[in-house]
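Lab notebook, design round three. We kept the backbone fixed and only want residue identities now. Task for the bench partner: fill in a sequence for the structure below.
Input structure tokens:
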């Protein structure tokens, strides 16, 4: 087969050294050891690239833009899996979801493998003398295994961004002069259930008067990755944008608290979304709208204000934090410290970026793998022809609308039909088709590209010990999922 990839070549291209697979190198600088850098890790629920610093024009996000202007803004960043608990498990461990055991949401019984429970960010930093805290959503099981000194996981209140700022103020006072790790998890822009009817999900235009100037529904608020136009969809997408504006207000308040406590210059700040928007072809898929997120890092004394083309992943978060704090790693990780990419926009980095999917709830089980380079992306649907993915997320009706006669014969219908019943392989030219409407897999003129990416994906799965390569394991998980039993036990 053409474009054969050796093990050494692939590991280098993917940003993995042979040594890092056994004990990743996160060598701490002398200054990091002496100054005991603090860490502020900010996650935002269901936030894609709908920020003005990432090119959004319908709304302005000046506070997040300011954070990006003061640090490194990565143009291409993936979560490990576009579902909350699995995504967060990868952040906490530096491993892809296929290695964490958290294949789906915690409320369906999935949890971290026992051997990983003392190797998460707060546990490792607490053992190193850090005061650890969390505000908002944790959503990785078992939650009691996470060693936070300060814990306020009332995620329902984190839309009240003034309240979040007040809790951060309390945490910093309690931390005193001790080095700290604080994880702040905003609920926005996640949809939430209507109190009067929990079967319905919505995005309120305002919460506590924020945003001050809500964006009204309209044709322009529709998402390019869907292109579905109904009055209901206009209301949903406008509501999502207003949640993003409220989030931005909260980030401004949060950063003001950090600066009032004189922690701007001694705190590593990492800002991400935990996956993309809760709309069909976004969240719970491996399309760009699901797995691609904003990723901003400000590391005092190391990063400089740049926009980086390095392809990064949330599996890089733990290795970066360990490097910055001078804490040695406790085991293997698939990610790597971002230090080099933060210092130099031209630093050698990954040629390939990988993401995956298994479950959201307990079913359906629809495992996928995706790999991209700087232009092309391959999706491997592991159970194509034997199972189908879910077509809905958080009451979004885009798929059902796409089946109306007005979409007959359109690229929109073809894209949603592929989404609902995918072939084994999908291939997209992300430069010419960023919304992934035109599947190129199987076309003769793209054969060499498809073969190269297929080989690279298989090699990556082998090197990261993907258990879903084992047909017996795959069958067992599929059987447990179809029976309704917990596939994570």
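Proposed sequence:
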């Amino acid at each position: 087969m053409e474009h054969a990839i050796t093990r050494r070549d692939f590991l280098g291209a993917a940003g993995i050294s042979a040594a890092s697979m056994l004990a990743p190198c996160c060598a701490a600088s002398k200054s990091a050891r002496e100054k005991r850098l603090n860490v502020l890790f900010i996650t935002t629920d269901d936030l894609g690239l709908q920020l003005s610093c990432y090119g959004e024009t319908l709304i302005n996000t000046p506070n997040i833009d300011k954070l990006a202007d003061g640090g490194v803004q990565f143009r291409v960043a993936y979560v490990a899996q576009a579902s909350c608990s699995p995504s967060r498990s990868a952040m906490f461990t530096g491993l892809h979801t296929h290695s964490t055991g958290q294949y789906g949401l915690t409320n369906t019984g999935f949890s971290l493998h026992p051997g990983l429970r003392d190797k998460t960010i707060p546990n490792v930093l607490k053992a190193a003398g850090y005061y650890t805290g969390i505000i908002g959503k944790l959503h990785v099981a078992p939650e009691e295994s996470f060693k936070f000194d300060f814990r306020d996981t009332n995620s329902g209140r984190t839309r009240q961004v003034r309240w979040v700022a007040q809790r951060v103020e309390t945490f910093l006072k309690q931390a005193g002069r001790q080095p700290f790790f604080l994880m702040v998890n905003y609920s926005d822009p996640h949809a939430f259930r209507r109190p009067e009817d929990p079967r319905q999900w919505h995005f309120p235009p305002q919460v506590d008067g924020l945003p001050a100037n809500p964006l009204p529904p309209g044709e322009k608020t529709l998402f390019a990755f869907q292109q579905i136009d109904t009055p209901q969809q206009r209301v949903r997408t406008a509501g999502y944008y207003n949640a993003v504006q409220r989030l931005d207000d909260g980030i401004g308040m949060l950063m003001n608290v950090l600066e009032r406590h004189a922690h701007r210059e001694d705190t590593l700040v990492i800002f991400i979304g935990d996956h993309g928007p809760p709309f069909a072809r976004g969240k719970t898929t491996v399309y760009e709208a699901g797995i691609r997120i904003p990723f901003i890092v400000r590391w005092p004394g190391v990063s400089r204000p740049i926009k980086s083309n390095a392809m990064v992943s949330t599996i890089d978060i733990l290795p970066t934090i360990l490097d910055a704090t001078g804490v040695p790693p406790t085991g293997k990780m698939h990610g790597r410290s971002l230090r080099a990419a933060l210092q130099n926009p031209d630093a050698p980095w990954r040629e390939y970026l990988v993401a995956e999917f298994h479950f959201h709830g307990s079913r359906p089980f629809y495992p996928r793998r995706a790999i991209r380079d700087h232009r092309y992306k391959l999706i491997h649907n592991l159970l194509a022809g034997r199972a189908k993915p879910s077509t809905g997320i958080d009451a979004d009706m885009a798929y059902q609308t796409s089946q109306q006669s007005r979409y007959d014969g359109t690229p929109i219908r073809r894209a949603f039909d592929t989404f609902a019943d995918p072939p084994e392989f999908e291939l997209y030219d992300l430069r010419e088709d960023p919304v992934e409407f035109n599947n190129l897999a199987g076309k003769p003129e793209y054969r060499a590209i498809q073969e190269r990416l297929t080989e690279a994906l298989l090699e990556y799965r082998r090197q990261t010990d993907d258990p879903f390569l084992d047909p017996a394991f795959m069958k067992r998980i599929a059987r447990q999922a179809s029976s309704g039993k917990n596939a994570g036990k």
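Keep this in mind before ordering anything: The CA atoms of residues 22 and 332 lie 5 Å apart.
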